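Progress narrative, work stream C.
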Amino acid sequence: MRILVLNGSPKKKSDTFRMTEAFLRGMDKEQENVIDVINVIDKNIAPCKGCFGCWQKKDGHCVIQDDQNEILDLYVKADVIIWSFPLYCYSMPSHLKAVLDRTIPLVKKGMVEESNGTVHHEALVDFSKIHTVVISGCGFPDWEGNFDALKQMCNTCFGNLEMVCVPEAPLFNIPEAAIVAEPLLESFEKAGAEYASNLKLSDETKKILETPMISKEEYLKGING
């Protein structure tokens, strides 16, 4: 498979990307993959200008001449796209959101109404063949409520979607927390192998990945001192 990884962490030592790396190791155990990793923070991606020049050209490219068109070329060739990022203000970091905003050249101006009443732009490319994985970590001690806005956005924007949202992500880069962090990374590796075999994650697997590593009380005590 061809896998595009959009790493949205602004840090070289990323908590979230440790999970993604483990997931990719698992995927590689099942088969040989071609993996393109884009560290978005290192790219020149301007905000969308809302000019809709892309809808005039209809060539799948943005009229802004920066690094986004390179990403769009990889995007349409990918079998799997992994969006890996820390939770920022209950969504994704702004530099990564610019990448998402500027995928608009991959749709047309015309709109389509589905049988359930939802309306979306007509696709310029075949999105049905693209599978999406979202891996997001946050610094809060629990899951409920923290990822709701992100889940709503991703479920609206992406098809063939699997999401893994992990609380207490800073523990991955604290040596003293290795006793709880390393087993979870091993679970991410197993999850990657599972996903590579059928492009799905079971509810049981997602529950394992999203369960906090330590109690809320213990986590808050460590954060607050």
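Work stream C, second folded protein:
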Amino acid sequence: MELEERVSELERRLEALVGVHPEAPSPTGGDFWALEGLKQQLAGAADGGVLYTGAVRLPTGERYEWQYGALTEQLLDAGGAGGAGSAGEGSEQVPAGADWADVAESFAALGHPVRLRLLREILGGRRTAAELAALDETGTTGQIYHHLRQLTGAGWLHTKGRGRYEVPGARVVPLLVALTAAKP
């Protein structure tokens, strides 16, 4: 790593440690506005449903707005999962009749610390294979390409030109939701 890159990395880490970060809204009292809105939308659905949504700005300045909802009956049906209305940039739905096992590859791709680090770095602006290979503690170039192929195959990344990677817009908020849900 060159000196300028090392200083930039240290500045980014310092900001993450001591930067001013607004607290996430606390779900107390009247703060269940999203839940109340979902319940109104699902008034006719006996078993309810789930909704996740987000409006994010990445360190690169890119902005994404996304939401996805699904009925509980469709999610728990022995043969299926299905979306029940979605809107926003890059929304996607799981096709009705999809088996839970169909999403195992997507979850498995997130199950390695180096892959999570690569995703974080890509969201943070490091987009080329050369930039990712220069990172400490990510393995050899061959190992990095293996991880990038796993993430690409699972849909968490796509290539944009030669040796450039990005998280597809439709996957930015779902990735952040999965990371938030995985925290104990």
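The helical segments are 3-18, 33-41, 72-76, 104-109, 113-123, 129-133, 141-153, 169-182. No further action is required on this item.
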